[in-house]
């Protein structure tokens, strides 16, 4: 197998692109792809400031690494959820801290226990929708941080596989609200930072190869609450299609981004009230975040 660019021995083959690459050209290919995504979807101004939500998984580590390589001002953000089962949070925190140190990325850590006196396992005792609560918590905190540092955008590590499986799941239910919001860039709105997904067109195998090339080692521990498991069947269906028709995942998602505007206006109206506690837009007088982390604590006092 030879590199499509230079003809030297290739280390990796990407059937979806009908290409194979040596180390040097894998690096160049990946950077170019992400840079095109950033430009096409107007994610960041040159040298812009971007907060990256880093969990310790390969996708968010690669997102932070690539943005730094492309010359952006990257600020890392990590939420310590306090999940000690499987050593999940301590290991993730260590991986993120070491990574940021190595790549000279300033890191902001919010430790839930330190800040709110309780953590995810404690909330999980009274809540069966813990993954949803955990998602709300992380989104609230990263949004708040991105706004506080005046970032041009908040980046997450969503990949082509994530975007395609969410798209398929939303289509299966004709969930118009989420179909309008599955695009790689969501503009800033009052109370919300601009949200970007720079890896929205990079597939799992490309990210794994790139992480390996740069010795980026993600946390191996898995969250014991098994987040996202409900989307696995969509992933399996897409993987099966991709095997038969390489590139189909990419064109499925890419063509959706062309027509996503058709779903605009089908979104639920923006929240009307501001949360009485934190002041951020909310659908109820006190937002889910504050109900979970702040109000309960005050009652206990
Ligand atoms: Fe939040 Fe698993 S990472 S519940
Ligand atoms: Zn080459
Ligand atoms: Zn609130």
From TrEMBL:
GO terms for biological process: tRNA wobble position uridine thiolation. Pfam families: ATP_bind_3, TtuA_LIM_N. Residues 50-221 form the tRNA(Ile)-lysidine/2-thiocytidine synthase N-terminal domain. SUPFAM superfamilies: Adenine nucleotide alpha hydrolases-like. Signal peptide: none annotated. Zn(2+) 2 binds at residues 275, 278, 287, 290. It comes from the Bacteria. GO terms for molecular function: ATP binding; metal ion binding; transferase activity; tRNA binding. GO terms for cellular component: cytosolic tRNA wobble base thiouridylase complex. ATP binds at residues 53-55, 59, 79, 157, 162. Zn(2+) 1 binds at residues 3, 6, 22, 25. This is Predicted ATPase of the PP-loop superfamily implicated in cell cycle control. The gene is MesJ.
């Amino acid at each position: 197998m030879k590199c499509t660019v230079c003809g030297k021995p290739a280390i990796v083959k990407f059937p979806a692109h009908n290409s194979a690459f040596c180390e040097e050209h894998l690096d160049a290919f990946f950077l170019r792809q992400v840079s095109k995504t950033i430009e096409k979807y107007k994610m960041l101004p040159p040298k812009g400031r971007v907060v990256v939500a880093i969990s310790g998984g390969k996708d968010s580590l690669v997102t932070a690494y690539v943005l730094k390589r492309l010359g952006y001002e990257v600020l890392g953000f990590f939420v310590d959820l306090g999940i000690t089962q499987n050593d999940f949070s301590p290991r993730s925190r260590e991986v993120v801290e070491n990574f940021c140190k190595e790549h000279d990325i300033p890191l902001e850590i919010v430790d839930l226990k330190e800040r709110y006196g309780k953590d995810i396992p404690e909330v999980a005792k009274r809540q069966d929708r813990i993954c949803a609560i955990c998602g709300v918590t992380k989104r609230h905190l990263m949004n708040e941080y991105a706004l506080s540092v005046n970032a041009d955008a908040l980046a997450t590590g969503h990949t082509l596989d994530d975007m395609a499986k969410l798209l398929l799941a939303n289509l299966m239910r004709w969930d118009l609200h989420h179909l309008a919001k599955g695009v790689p860039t969501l503009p800033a709105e009052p109370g919300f930072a601009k949200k970007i997904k720079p890896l929205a067109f990079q597939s799992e195998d490309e990210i794994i190869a790139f992480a390996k090339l740069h010795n980026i080692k993600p946390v191996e521990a898995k969250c014991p609450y098994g987040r996202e498991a409900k989307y696995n069947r969509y992933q399996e269906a897409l993987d099966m299609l991709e095997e038969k028709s390489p590139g189909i995942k990419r064109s499925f998602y890419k063509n959706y981004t062309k027509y996503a505007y058709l779903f605009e206006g089908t979104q639920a109206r923006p929240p009307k009230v501001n949360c009485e506690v934190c002041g951020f837009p909310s659908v109820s007088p006190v937002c889910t975040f504050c109900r979970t982390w702040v109000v309960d604590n005050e009652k206990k006092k």
